[in-house]
Specification:
About 25% of the residues lie in helices and about 20% in strands. It folds into 2 domains: about 90 residues, btk motif of tyrosine-protein kinase itk (Irregular), CATH 4.10.1130.20; about 60 residues, btk motif of tyrosine-protein kinase itk, CATH 4.10.1130.20. A hairpin with an 8-residue loop joins strand 8 and strand 9. With about 200 residues, the chain is of the alpha+beta class.
Length: about 200
């Protein structure tokens, strides 16, 4: 007659209580290998899976089934390094190398640039071109500032300065042009150096 004394299984991953009557093939689900604890890595020599969190380690599915045992083989709890760790580490490193790790400074700059573009697009949606009494738009390009018909705008419609006006001591010039003058009237007459489309002034 089978012994009805309750025992506790010593297999890793099982540790359940059982009786001889309940101990049938497949009753025990366990890890036949040994636990791996190396640096922060945790796993089993019989499973090709490495985790870092203790709870995740506890939840790693067992990979073998058989009979329960109450054997007190001390080697079942031995902590040691394994070739499985190296294989798993290499796999993890391959995965990590696929991910570009950005510095927080770079991330912040990208976010600022992205937000600036969003803000500019939103600002454009809110603003409308200024329409003159004659029904035309007024160009916002420096050196042009002319009224124009938006239906006649094109790649060569506007002559302007893409740079900024510069005033240093008595000198006057455009940052986009090399010509320097001293008189204001001469400065206003400096020829433009860029051709393109009119850009409407917005309100």
């Amino acid at each position: 007659m089978a012994d009805s004394t309750e025992k506790k299984c010593t297999r890793n991953g099982c540790k359940k209580k059982y009786t001889d009557a309940e101990n049938t093939p497949g009753a025990c689900n366990y890890h036949p290998g040994k636990p791996i604890f190396h640096d922060l890595k945790k796993g089993w020599t019989c499973c090709n899976k490495i985790v870092y969190d203790w709870d995740e380690f506890q939840k790693i599915p067992t990979c073998a089934s058989g009979l329960h045992t109450d054997s007190t083989d001390s080697t079942t709890d031995e902590f040691f390094k394994s070739g499985t760790v190296d294989n798993a580490r290499k796999a993890l490193e391959r995965e990590e190398n696929r991910v570009e790790v950005k510095r927080i400074e770079d991330f912040n700059k990208e976010e600022e640039a992205r937000q600036k573009i969003i803000d500019e697009e939103e600002a454009k949606k809110l603003k409308k071109p200024i329409v003159t009494p004659s029904g035309k738009y007024k160009c916002a390009n420096k050196g042009c500032l002319k009224e124009y018909d938006p239906n006649e705008n094109g790649p060569s419609a506007c002559n302007y300065h893409p740079g900024e006006p510069c005033f240093h001591d008595l000198k006057k010039f455009w940052s986009c042009c090399k010509t320097t003058v001293w008189d204001w009237d001469e400065f206003m007459k400096l020829p433009t150096c860029q051709t393109g489309e009119h850009v409407p002034k917005l309100q």
